[in-house]
Amino acid sequence: MSDRKAELERKKQRLEQMRKERQEKERARSTRQTDEAPKPAQSQDLRAETDELLKDLGIPPSGPKSSSPSPTHSNKSASDTEAKQVIVTTSRKPKVKLSVTKVSETSIPPKENVSYSKETQTAILEPLDKEGKNPWDYYVLTYDDPMGHTDEDGETDSMAAQPQTPTSSKMPHVEMVAPKQTQEDLDKKEEKPVPELSEEEKLHILNSEDFQTFFSKSARLVERMLTEEVDIYTDYSGGDNEGKDDESAGDRLKLNRIFYDERWSKHRTNTSLDWSKQHPELLLASYNTNEDSPHDPDGVALIWNMKFKKQTPEYVFHCQSAIMSSCFAEFHPNLIVGGTYSGQIVLWDNRVNKRTPIQRTPLSAAAHTHPVYCVNVVGTQNAHNLISVSTDGKMCSWSLDMLAQPQDSMELHFKQSKSVAVTCFSFLSGDVNNFVVGSEECTVYTACRHGRSVDLGRGESKAGISEGFEGHHGPITGIDCHKVPGQIDFSPYFLTSSFDWTIKLWSIKEQKFLHSFEDNSDYIYDVKWSPTHPALFASADGNGKLDLWNLNNDTEVPTTSITIDNNACLNHVRWHETGSHIAAGDDIGRIHLYDVAETVAAPKGNEWSKFAKTLQEMKQQATEREEEAMSLSTMTSPLR
């Protein structure tokens, strides 16, 4: 209770103190106003002094004299009024504050009206005076004409000789007048200083997605410009080629360039090649694991540009597993498909600023669980699928829009035996149902997706493996169906390569091979038909030798060959769609691009008929070979 009383007492004291302070402030304010007020006594003194001075000078004091009985009071009122007028007059004239103002001037030249006069010189026909003279003859010289020159009418021809003013002198002289520039215009032209950025702001800009996309595109453009070589001395008249016909005729296979990147290609083996359909200058190459760099991604896919002489790839993609096969999505120019050693199918998109896959298939029993050596996109623009086959014989059909689960899948078995270990496959030309596969069991098989196969002309069969073709003595490494369009259909024919050092030519209508090419002395890793020449194909072997075979010229030895350096072996070959270039990948990460001479790559008009004749001869030789084998087996069979 005592605390409360003490608190109330303190508050009362505080209020009393505030009241006193307020009273002191009011007293000080009233004192200040009293001091500042005008003093009438002082004004009266000034008036009196002024009157005294005027009296001394002999001037009577000014102002009317009042007849009021109280003059003192009247004088006092007048002096008060004059003092008030002085105060009011003084208060009405405050100090003027001056400041400098910038005036912007704009000079607009007046519109100039250009005018000119147009004159035409004509003969002035005026009447002559009585003496036969013209009024203007006074201003010209005259002379006697003894010949008496007259016109047809007998009148003297006279021309007015009045002075002429040149037309150009009457034309105004117009000059271009530049508009007057003000100081503000000049200030705008001055470059503004670049603001300094902090380290945090710099890192934020460098890590932004927009900057990385811009820098990636700009770097590619600058690199193309720096590496492009143009021969300014090219003679299009053909003068430079005189005397060189003999040299160019023998240069059938010429090295154009080598694609190799020290960061991504070193110590990696090339596993697949593919050319883009939409952008023919782009080449896709996949690589497996770099054992010398365990911290790098296991699988790498690089896109190289044949058009520009740059040393780095256009795009770099990678994933966590080694890439065993890859291809461009034929009907999607920005998508790249890869088959991995783990069994996953991965999908990259070059529109996205990331190197890792944007989609991938699950690692489950519904999809692949073994290495995928075969991927391909088949179909049309509006109806197409991604087909993949793994080494356990499982074939899956996918939609590129959804890789969560396959649309269809089946196991490839031959006559209810174990699954076929597929190493390569190829679809027949213009067919999305029938295809051929090569296996690790040294056998080639024909198969179909939907149960209508073309197997030896025996009609329909169920989906899966239809027939087997035996002839190789080693695993099949490469297979390719004939796809060159022309006068004659050669789509039933296909080539295979194997570890048995041979290449064999087959027909799906014949169970025996038609011909065996045995010129190589090492494993043959790949074989591909030319896309333009019906009788031309290429092969690559373990000695690093690239062979081009023209079956219309010779079936025993290749038409031309070339061997790469560094004792590397060639793993894959891929023709460019024009047939004038061929790419070959080796086991040390290099991609060799060769130019094929036109004499080799370009077919003549009779190549199709010649190749049909060559195939007929091969079939006849195969029949004779089979008869000889049967006769030998009969002779060597034991007597009963």
What fraction strand? 25-35%
Looking at this structure, what is the CATH superfamily of one domain? Answer: YVTN repeat-like/Quinoprotein amine dehydrogenase
What is the count of helical runs? 10
* Overall geometry: elongated
In round numbers, the mean pLDDT is: 80
- At the first level of CATH, what is the class of one domain? Mainly Beta
- By CATH, the topology of one domain is Methylamine Dehydrogenase, Chain H
- Major beta sheet, strand line-up: 1-28-27-26
What is the structural class? alpha+beta
Ends: how far apart?
141 Å
Low-confidence stretches: 64-78, 86-91, 145-165, 238-250
Assign a percent range to the helix content. Answer: 10-25%
At CATH's second level, what is the architecture of one domain? Answer: 7 Propeller
**Secondary structure tally: strands:** 28
Largest sheet: 4 strands, antiparallel
Question: Radius of gyration in whole Å, from Cα?
Answer: 54 Å
